[in-house]
Every structure is written in C-alpha cells, then in structure tokens.
UniProtKB/TrEMBL annotation:
Regions crossing the membrane: none
Basic and acidic residues bias spans: 15-36, 68-87
Compositional bias ranges of the Low complexity kind: 38-57
Naturally occurring in which organism (per UniProt): Azospirillum oleiclasticum
Protein name: DUF2934 domain-containing protein
Region entry Disordered, spans: 15-94
Pfam family, one: DUF2934
Length: 94
C-alpha cells in the first residue's frame, strides 16, 4: 500500500471531521482500512501490499512510516496556519 495514498486519505478524513487535534493515528488507520478494502484482488496481493502503519512497531528503512506521519502532521499544521491567515485577512476586511 502506498503511504502517499494513505496520508492523502487521512488528511481528507481529518478535514471532513473539522480538523480535530490528536486523532492522526485514528485517521491513518481508518484510511488504511478503507484503501485496503478497495483494492486487493487476492490474498497474495493483499499480503504484498501490507505496509506497516504508523505505530506497527515494525522497523522499516529510515523509519519511513514515522517520517510519513510527521510529514503529514507538518502538512496539516501548515495548511491550518495558512487557513487561519486567510480567515484573519477576510475577517478584517469590511
């Protein structure tokens, strides 16, 4: 499974729920389950696509899962910061 697709879906879930704090792991796992359900045509495909989630405790090269999770969190913060600036700009305009 592609971490980029999981991250993008987790972001969509986060936004659709009003951007709550502290639910990144729940969104990650939900996105993973949803994407797992849409694709694997056989047990072999499913096993091959089984990438560890953010808290699987399985070492991966360069700690890729954790890096992806941190990258997603930074992306969420940046987008939230940009949205707040945009909201502040429109709120002060008569």
């Amino acid at each position: 499974m592609d971490d980029t697709r999981i991250r993008d879906r987790a972001y969509e879930l986060w936004e659709s729920e009003g951007r709550p704090d502290g639910r990144h792991e729940e969104h990650w796992h939900q996105a993973r389950r949803e994407l797992d359900g849409e694709g694997a045509s056989s047990a072999a495909d499913s096993a091959a696509d089984s990438a560890p989630g953010p808290d699987a405790g399985i070492p991966v090269p360069g700690n890729a899962s954790q890096d992806s999770l941190h990258e997603a969190a930074e992306r969420f913060r940046d987008m939230d910061r940009e949205q707040r600036k945009a909201d502040a700009g429109t709120a002060s305009t008569p």
